[in-house]
Amino acid sequence: MTRFVHSVRPALAGCVLVLVSGCAQAPAPAGPAATAVATAVKPAASPAVATVVAAASPVASPAAAAAAASPVRITGARLDLSDTTVTVQNVTGSAVDLTGWRLRVGAATAALPSGSRVGPNEVITIHSAAGTSTAQEIYLGQEAAALIGGMRPGATVALVDAQGTVVGEFTLPG
Fold it and tell me: What is the pTM of this model?
């Protein structure tokens, strides 16, 4: 499986460097092939904060196929010492109830608050900090405490639905 690594440095704001390890040609996939590449980089407010927005296409693995079929996708993340955020988009014309859904970093998980939802074709931001949740901003507060230690550049954040299926994954920029 080919892995893509995103590297964002303050001096390269506005540019994306994609590194691919291995030079051997991969065999042709039996199903739809997949790539995940950074499609935009938002300039950082400080050198310690970077935001990468990603786009993904269908993938041949079962987990990736489930993610591609999901109406909800992780589209970006921002590392910040006081409030790491994950951006999630609903790509359908119907609202999606996120009750029972979780964010996972390594073995640690945090439940999204009961009653959380993302409206049709809307984007929400999930915050690791405490705060008052709104329709577009979900604050995990204490629930995110288990995730904080793993939220570092290169870590993978997974969005897991109420049935335990990983519906989206994103590698934190750094």
Answer: 0.64
